[in-house]
Design goal:
The complex is a heterodimer of chains A (77) and B (588). Chain A has 77 residues and is an all-alpha fold. Chain A has helices spanning 2-33, 35-38, 40-71. Chain A has one domain. Helices cover 88% and strands 0% of the residues of chain A. Chain A is elongated and about 50 Å long. Chain B has 588 residues and is an all-alpha fold. The relative contact order of chain B is 0.18. The chains are: A mainly alpha (77), B mainly alpha (588).
C-alpha cells in the first residue's frame, strides 16, 4: 500500500511536470522569449493562444488524475 | 430613452437581484459563512470564482491598458489566466483535501511549532498579516472602480458613488457570508459577461464585419483590405508611437511581470478559499477548469476590444485627414468625459483641432514639425476605454447602461470576496485560533460580521483616496501574494522537509523585500522609477517574481539547517497527497 502511494505520487509528478512544460512553452516561450522569431504568431500566442492552451491543460489534468485515482484506488466515492 | 434612465434601470434591477439572492441565501453558521457549507457544485463555484476573480481592473481598466500598451498588454492577459493552471495542478486539490477554512489555517497547521502549549502560532500569524495586507490593497482598487462608474453615469459625486458601493457590499457580505457571496457572484458573472460581450460583438461587426470579437481581432479593418493589426501598427507609427504588436517593455520585464501575476493569482487568499467550498478533491480540480473557461471568455475578448477601441479612438480624434478633428464639432463623448475629468484637452497650437500623438518620441516630433503641431493635446485616462467604447462606437443607450451595470458587478463581486477573507482572517484566524480559542460558533459568527462591516467601511475610505489607477493598485497585491503565500503553500505540499523556521523566514523576507522595492520606486522616489534604476531591469510590477524566488531559496536552505517537521506533520503531508478520505471543510 505504502509503496503504491509512492508510485501514485511519482506518476502525478510526471503529469504535472509535462503539463507545466507545455504551460511554460506557450506563454513564456512562444509569447515572450521567441515572440519576435514567430512574428504574428508570437503576438497571437501572447494575447490569445496561450489562454486557450491553459484551459485545455487543466481539463487534460482533470482527466489524467481521475483515471490515475481510480487506478490506484484512491478516488473518492 | 435617455441614458440616465437606462442606467438607473439596469443598475437598479441588477442590485435588486443581488439583494434578493443575499436574503435567500444568508448564512446561519460559521461553516456557511466561511465556506458556504462546503456544498457548492463545481460549475457554480467555477462561475463564482470567475466573478470573484474578475475585478474592476479586469472589466474596466484592462482593455484600456492593453489598448495603450499594445503587445505589452499580454502581461495581464497571460498573467491573470496562467495562474489558474498552477492553482489547479499544484494547490487547489491538496488544500481542499486538507479541508479547513482558510489559507492561514493550512499554513498554521503545516508549520505548527513543536511546543504544544505555545499560545501563538507564528506561521499562522505571519500568514494572517500577509492575507490582510494583500486583500486590503486589492479591495481599495475595487472601491475606486465603483466610484468611477457611478460618478460618470449616475452623475453623482465620486465619493457618493463609493459610499453607495459600500452600502451594497455591506448588506450582502455581512448578511450572507460565503454562501450569500457565492450565489450573488454567480448572478454577477452572468451580468458582467453579458455586459462585456454585447458591445464587443457590436463593435467587432462594425469594424471587421465579424460578430465574434476573437476572430474580428484577426480580421480586416473596415473592408480596407488590410488587417486590423497592420492598420493599428500603421496608425501608431504615423503618430510616433511604437508598433501596436511590438510594445515598449523589455523582454525581461514582460517575463517577470507575467510571472508575478501568475504566481500572485495562485497565491491570492480570496481565490484559494473558493476551492474550499466544493464537496470533493476532484471537484476542486474540475472547478478550476470551469473557472478558467468563464474567465477566458472575457480575457480573449479583451485584447480584441482593446484593438477596436484604439483604432476607433484614433480614427475619431484625428479625423479623416489625420489632422485632428475640430473641437467645436467633436463627438459628445469627448466633452462628456472631459467634464468627468477623465479626458484632458488643451489646444496647444491654437488651431481649434484636437491632435493626439506621441510628443516624446523623435518620430512623433518629426510628424509634429511637418504638420505644425505643438505637443500632444489629448490625454485620455486608460480607465475610461471600456466605459467610453460604446459611446465612441455610437451604440444605443441601453448598451452603455449595461456596461455600467457590468462594471459594478465586477467591482462588487470581487470586493465581497476580499472582504470575506479580511473578516475571516480576523474572526477565525486571529480571534478563534489565536487569542480567544473558547468562543462559541455563534459568537465567532457575530465577530465575523462585525469584522466584515468594519473592513467594508475602511476599504471605502481608502478607495476615496487611492494611489495610482485601478490596475496598478491591484498589481501590487499580486506581487505581495506571489512573494509570500505561493512558496509557503507549494513547498508545504511538495517538500516534506520544509519546516516552520524555513517557511516563516521565507515569507518574511519575501514580503519585506517586495514591499520595500515597490514602496521605494512607487511611493518614496517615483522620479527614480525608470528602467535604468531597476534591478536587472525588473519594474516594481514584476518584482514579486524575484521576491518569490528569494522566499523559495531561503525557505529551502533554512529548512535544511534546522530540524525536520514532526512525524505528525509529515503525516498531514502524506495525507493531503491522496484524494480519498476528504472530509467536509471544517474547523476540526
Amino acid at each position: 500500500m505504502k509503496k503504491d502511494l509512492k508510485k501514485y505520487w511519482k506518476r502525478n509528478l510526471t503529469y504535472l511536470l509535462s503539463l507545466l512544460a507545455v504551460w511554460f512553452m506557450v506563454s513564456y516561450g512562444a509569447g515572450i522569449i521567441f515572440k519576435d522569431a514567430l512574428g504574428g504568431l508570437g503576438f497571437w500566442f501572447a494575447q490569445q493562444g496561450s489562454i486557450y492552451v491553459f484551459v485545455v491543460l487543466i481539463f487534460v489534468y482533470v482527466f489524467l488524475m481521475n483515471r490515475l485515482d481510480k487506478e490506484y484506488d484512491v478516488n473518492e466515492e | 430613452m435617455d441614458l440616465q434612465i437606462w442606467t438607473f434601470l439596469m443598475v437598479g434591477l441588477t442590485f435588486a437581484l443581488y439583494i434578493g439572492i443575499a436574503i435567500w441565501s444568508r448564512a446561519s453558521s460559521t461553516k456557511e459563512f466561511y465556506v458556504a457549507g462546503g456544498g457548492v457544485s463545481p460549475l457554480a463555484n467555477g462561475m463564482a470564482t470567475a466573478a470573484d476573480w474578475m475585478s474592476a481592473a479586469s472589466f474596466i481598466s484592462m482593455a484600456g491598458l492593453i489598448s495603450f500598451m499594445g503587445y505589452d498588454g499580454a502581461v495581464y492577459l497571460m498573467g491573470w489566466t496562467g495562474g489558474y493552471v498552477l492553482l489547479a495542478l499544484l494547490l487547489a486539490p491538496y488544500l481542499r483535501k486538507f479541508g479547513e477554512f482558510t489559507v492561514p489555517d493550512f499554513i498554521g497547521a503545516r508549520y505548527a511549532g513543536t511546543d504544544k502549549n505555545a499560545k501563538i502560532n507564528w506561521a499562522r500569524l505571519v500568514a494572517v498579516v500577509c492575507a490582510l495586507f494583500v486583500s486590503f490593497t486589492y479591495v481599495v482598487g475595487q472601491m475606486k472602480g465603483v466610484g468611477v462608474a457611478f460618478s460618470r453615469f449616475l452623475e453623482v459625486d465620486f465619493n457618493v458613488g463609493v459610499m453607495i458601493g459600500i452600502a451594497i457590499v455591506f448588506f450582502y457580505a455581512v448578511l450572507g457570508g460565503m454562501k450569500g457571496i457565492t450565489y450573488t457572484q454567480v448572478a454577477q458573472y452572468c451580468v458582467l459577461i453579458f455586459a462585456y460581450l454585447v458591445p464587443a460583438i457590436f463593435i467587432s461587426l462594425e469594424i471587421t464585419g465579424n460578430p465574434i470579437p476573437q476572430f474580428g481581432f484577426l480580421g480586416d479593418f473596415k473592408g480596407e483590405g488590410v488587417s486590423l493589426l497592420e492598420k493599428l501598427n500603421q496608425l501608431n507609427t504615423d503618430l510616433g508611437f511604437n508598433e501596436y504588436t511590438a510594445g515598449t517593455k523589455s523582454k525581461v520585464d514582460v517575463f517577470f511581470i507575467t510571472a508575478a501575476l501568475m504566481l500572485g493569482t495562485a497565491g491570492l487568499p480570496h481565490v484559494i478559499v473558493r476551492f474550499f467550498t466544493v464537496p470533493k478533491v476532484s471537484d476542486a480540480r474540475l472547478s478550476a477548469g470551469y473557472a478558467l473557461i468563464f474567465i477566458a471568455i472575457l480575457y480573449t475578448t479583451a485584447p480584441a476590444v482593446a484593438a477596436f477601441a484604439r483604432a476607433n479612438m484614433i480614427d475619431t480624434v484625428m479625423g479623416e485627414d489625420g489632422q485632428g478633428v475640430a473641437y467645436a464639432t467633436a463627438p459628445d463623448w469627448i466633452k462628456n468625459w472631459e467634464t468627468a475629468g477623465l479626458i484632458k484637452y488643451e489646444d496647444l497650437n491654437g488651431d481649434g483641432k484636437i491632435q493626439y500623438y506621441n510628443d516624446k518620441s523623435e518620430a512623433g516630433q518629426a510628424v509634429a514639425i511637418a504638420n505644425g503641431w505643438k505637443g500632444n493635446e489629448f490625454v485620455p485616462d486608460q480607465d475610461i476605454m471600456v466605459l467610453a467604447n460604446p459611446e465612441i462606437a455610437k451604440l444605443p443607450n441601453w448598451v452603455i447602461a449595461l456596461v455600467v451595470a457590468g462594471g459594478l458587478a465586477a467591482a462588487l463581486s470581487t470586493a465581497a470576496g476580499l472582504l470575506l477573507v479580511i473578516s475571516t482572517s480576523i474572526s477565525h484566524d486571529l480571534l478563534k485560533k489565536t487569542f480567544m480559542p473558547d468562543i462559541s460558533d455563534k459568537k465567532e459568527l457575530l465577530y465575523a460580521r462585525i469584522a466584515a462591516g468594519v473592513a467594508v467601511v475602511g476599504a471605502g475610505i481608502a478607495g476615496m483616496n487611492p494611489p495610482g489607477f485601478v490596475a496598478q493598485v491591484v498589481a501590487f497585491a499580486f506581487g505581495l501574494a506571489a512573494s509570500s503565500f505561493f512558496p509557503a503553500i507549494l513547498l508545504g505540499i511538495f517538500d516534506k522537509r520544509t519546516n516552520r523556521q524555513g517557511a516563516v523566514a521565507g515569507m518574511v523576507v519575501g514580503i519585506i523585500f517586495t514591499a520595500t522595492y515597490i514602496i521605494y520606486f512607487k511611493i518614496a522616489n517615483p522620479e527614480l522609477n525608470v528602467p535604468a534604476n531597476w534591478w536587472f531591469g525588473i519594474s516594481p510590477e514584476g518584482i514579486g517574481t524575484l521576491g518569490m524566488i528569494f522566499n523559495m531559496v531561503i525557505t529551502l536552505v533554512v529548512s535544511r539547517l534546522t530540524p525536520p517537521p514532526s512525524e505528525e506533520i509529515q503525516q498531514i503531508v502524506e495525507d493531503i497527497r491522496v484524494p480519498r478520505g476528504a472530509k467536509e471543510a471544517s474547523s476540526h
